[in-house]
């Protein structure tokens, strides 16, 4: 429908986040006072894309040059996750679109996830679950303790530091890995690329939190798995491609390491026919390590602060530099 001469067309806000609760959508409407259009995963044919000024997204949808061409009024993309690798950064830069993500949300839930796995495995909870089903009251086999174990955290950023703090609270030794080897609070020692193998050989629990880059793809493959302790346990909450999944399956089948908890995968959602599902000592979770019932509230707190800054043309929190990619 054509607008009447002089009629003001209200800019709109588009939410493509597929699982946002209605009360959180209502909160965004109240904050912005803008008409809000919800189109999960950009599947609706009648979406008023030409009127969208602000886009709230996970950054996982098919955001490309063609879509941006259909959104000439778009001025700001707010990504409700840290990674922006699926956003066409050069297109965003060339069109002068602001791009912000969220940080500082994941430390607490992801560190709780890690420690829940560590305790679950060390205290041998799966055995008690099995015994309960069998009505078996068995006390002969004792469980291990977490204190004194060594955790290796590959990635010493905000999330890694939160994991390290919780591990230290359980009297674990904590080793870290980053690109410079710089010391980081809560870590007993920090390693870098030239000492990666030395670090792997010491760890009882290995936590992956690295970003996906050319250098980090297959960061854990056949060579690294053979270096680990026979009772080492791998936890990947970073990016799926950090782990060579076929090499991991082979290693676990041979009993080279104790097991693995995987929250991220090469292909997501994890296909029903993936062989990972059928490996007994792999624990699979559906990319939820950082997402609790508090997730959206924390995201919208950041969005609210950014929206007021956006209105006043002031600097926004967690603005992404498209040239750097973060």
TrEMBL record:
UniProt keyword terms in alphabetical order: NAD, Oxidoreductase
Pfam families: 2-Hacid_dh_C
SUPFAM superfamilies: Formate/glycerate dehydrogenase catalytic domain-like (SSF52283), NAD(P)-binding Rossmann-fold domains (SSF51735)
Keyword Magnesium among record annotations: no
Domain D-isomer specific 2-hydroxyacid dehydrogenase NAD-binding: 116-289
Keyword Oxidoreductase included in the entry's annotation: yes
InterPro entries (UniProt xref): D-isomer_DH_CS, D-isomer_DH_NAD-bd, NAD(P)-bd_dom_sf
Protein name: 3-phosphoglycerate dehydrogenase
């Amino acid at each position: 429908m054509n607008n009447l001469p002089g009629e003001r067309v209200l800019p709109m806000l588009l939410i493509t986040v597929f699982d946002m609760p209605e009360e959180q959508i209502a909160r965004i409407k109240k904050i912005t006072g803008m008409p809000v259009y919800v189109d999960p995963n950009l599947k609706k044919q009648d979406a008023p894309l030409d009127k969208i000024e602000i886009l709230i997204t996970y950054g996982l949808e098919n955001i490309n040059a063609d879509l941006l061409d259909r959104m000439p009024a778009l001025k700001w993309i707010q990504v409700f996750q840290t990674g922006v690798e699926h956003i066409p950064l050069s297109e965003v830069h060339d069109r002068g679109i602001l791009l912000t993500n969220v940080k500082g949300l994941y430390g607490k839930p992801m560190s709780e996830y890690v420690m829940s796995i560590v305790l679950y495995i060390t205290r041998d909870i799966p055995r008690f679950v099995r015994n309960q089903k069998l009505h078996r009251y068995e006390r002969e086999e004792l469980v291990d303790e977490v204190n004194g174990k060594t955790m290796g955290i590959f990635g010493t950023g905000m999330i890694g530091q939160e994991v390290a703090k919780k591990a230290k609270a359980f009297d674990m030794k904590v080793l870290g890995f980053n690109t410079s080897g710089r010391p980081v609070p809560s870590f007993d020692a920090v390693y870098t690329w030239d000492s990666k193998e030395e670090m792997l050989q010491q760890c009882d629990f290995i936590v992956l939190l690295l970003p996906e880059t050319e250098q980090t793809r297959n960061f854990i493959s056949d060579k690294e798995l053979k270096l680990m302790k026979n009772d080492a346990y791998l936890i990947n909450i970073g990016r799926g491609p950090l782990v060579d999944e076929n090499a991991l399956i082979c290693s676990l089948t041979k009993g080279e390491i104790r097991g693995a908890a995987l929250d991220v995968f090469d292909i997501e959602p994890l296909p029903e026919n993936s062989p990972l599902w059928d490996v007994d000592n792999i624990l699979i979770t559906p990319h939820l390590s950082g997402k609790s019932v508090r997730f959206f509230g924390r995201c919208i707190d950041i969005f609210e602060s950014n929206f007021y800054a956006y209105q006043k043309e002031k600097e926004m929190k967690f603005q992404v530099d498209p040239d750097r990619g973060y």
